[in-house]
Amino acid sequence: MKISKTSWALLAFGLIIIAGASLFILFKNEDSRKTDLEDRLALAEASIPAVVANIATTTEQADQLSAQLEEVLGKLAQAKGQFPETIQSIEYASALVQMAANSGVDLLSFESSEASKLTLSKLNFEMTEFTLVVRGDINPMLSFISAIDKGADFLTSSMDVIKLTFDTITAEDDLPKPTTTITLLLISYEG
Asked: Where are the transmembrane segments (predicted)?
């Protein structure tokens, strides 16, 4: 069986139409993809200034936070430096005797407790309690208490209890000098 030239021509024409239609469909799909990619690219290019501004703002915030962190770390180191590393009760007793003498009161007794541990915000401290009994007139007594409150050795201390006692009877029928019991808490930093 022999195929005629017309059949061959029709077959070739049909193949050309099928190939052309396939190429047209592929072109339309690629054109649609190209349009979609161009839209995405335009959207990405439009958002670049906002992203750059966000990066600049975030970098500025990071720099500010870094500066604040450095400042806080400096303040923490300074605060740690104000706390004595250990509390030597003999040194504090000596300072208190000197302050009492300078204020014109008599230091009658001095007791210190064993240091107890104290933890605040993951920082370890030791707290020692001192109990002092002093005798003197009211004005020198107040001067002594003020000297403790403002003393450089006692920046990390607090006076928790101040008890003023008057004896009512003396041998000479004079008004006695009052006795004051002071409970002083001193805190030291455990590095």
From this structure: 6-27
50-72 pLDDT, tens digit per residue, is 888 888 888 899 899 889 988 88
Residue written as tokens 């002083």?
A: 184
CATH topology of domain 89-189: Alpha-Beta Plaits (3.30.70)
Threshold 0.70, pTM exceeds: no
* Residue ranges per structural domain of the chain: 1-82, 89-189
Q: What are phi and psi of 121, to 5 degrees?
A: 50, 50
The alpha carbon of residue 69 and the mean position of all alpha carbons in its chain are separated, in whole angstroms, by 8
Angle at which helix 138-150 crosses helix 89-103, to 10 degrees, equals: 140
Please answer whether residues 141 and 134 qualify as being in contact, where contact means their C-beta atoms are separated by less than 8 angstroms. Answer: yes
**3-state SS record for the chain:** CCCCHHHHHHHHHHHHHHHHHHHHHHHHHHHHHHHHHHHHHHHHHHHHHHHHHHHHHHHHHHHHHHHHHHHHHHHHHHHHHHCCCCCCHHHHHHHHHHHHHHHCCEEEEEEECCCEEEEECCEEEEEEEEEEEEECCHHHHHHHHHHHHHCHHHCCEEEEEEEEECCCCCCCCCCCCCEEEEEEEEEEECC
List beta partners, residue 94: none
